[in-house]
# Entry
Amino acid sequence: MINIPKGTKDVLPAEAYKWHFVENTARRIAALYDLSEIRTPTFEHTELFLRGVGDTTDIVNKEMYTFLDKGERSITLKPEGTAGVVRAFIENGLAGGALPLKMYYITPVFRYERPQAGRLREHHQFGVEIFGGRGPETDAEVILLARDYLRALGAEGVELHLNSIGCKNCRPKYNEALREYLRPHLPEMCPTCNARFEKNPLRILDCKEEACAKINAGAPKSVDFLCDECREHFEALKEILADCGVAYTPDPKLVRGLDYYSKTVFEFVSTAIGSQGTVLGGGRYDTLIENLGGPSVPAVGFGSGIERMLLLLENTGKTIPAEPPLAAYVAGLDAAGRRAAFALANELRQAGISADVDHAARSVKAQFKYAGKIGARYVVVIGADELASGEYTVKHMSDSSSERVPREKIVSYLRGRI
# Structure
């Protein structure tokens, strides 16, 4: 037998309704905020992620699925959603349209990392990107959308963590202060942090190694080094969030795991899914579009793993509503009855009523047993007597009662009861 690859998971029919709940909620909340869907390819040229995500990130250094195609081109399965959306924005000239452009996506992403609860090598993300909004109101809107998405799912015990990591004008000064603090501790820190020290010391604050985390606890705070523009932006954002009743926790160690962020960064975190508790995270990336060859267009967004969201809902006891059961199973008792059953099932479906029929030449007893297993609300029985009289037997599976209904009234009868 061929087994599923490590770090992947089948979504079986019995579990699919949970995914539908999360995905449909994401689409509904996105529509409330006037976002349109964008779909980008599953794979892109590797250079896109090297330039976009950043070559000091774990994603690029350790986790990308990269290969040469038959044309000897380096191709990578997308490890995150933003870079592909930026590429599409530039390549299709979307900057020439109405801005801000507000988009969302639901997509698979691929990262070669150690599989753990809610974090797989192939997982799925709901992501939001708004291109063209420069002010703190856009940051706030993205955070509010994220909050409303979590609320609509019924996610409990989730906290918003907020920070500002400055811009290209003020970050160099902070980076230098960070290096001064970290330099004496480098012998005690992991090889990855040592490698990041010169090129991108900000990444060191994201290290999860225990020894590094203890050292990072005393590091300078980025908010103490913000330029006037970044400070005003961050203070205005906090005021807007307060006006909207959004509570948050200042988190000076929050930097996110991608190099393209600037100014605002945020995460919604929970202790209900273990130590890696981020269920949704994002921020502002005002220079990414320009860095990838496009015009200077500010941007802000977030990504949220669907598997981790489902794990959070499960661990906090959230009951995900089941989808509507099958309305009618049509049981034919003989050859003529099965033919009539197939025709009636087709008519019910055309009328918008879910219906199923026997595909295994089962006995009537076996058909009723099958209808019970799949949760059918009604069973319409068609035998020789029903065909002769023109009245079909309709059994209510909830209480086992039944009644005879004229053939021409079956559709209206069922429509009034489902």
Q: What stands out?
A: The longest strand covers residues 101-110. Residues 136-153 form the longest helix (18 residues).
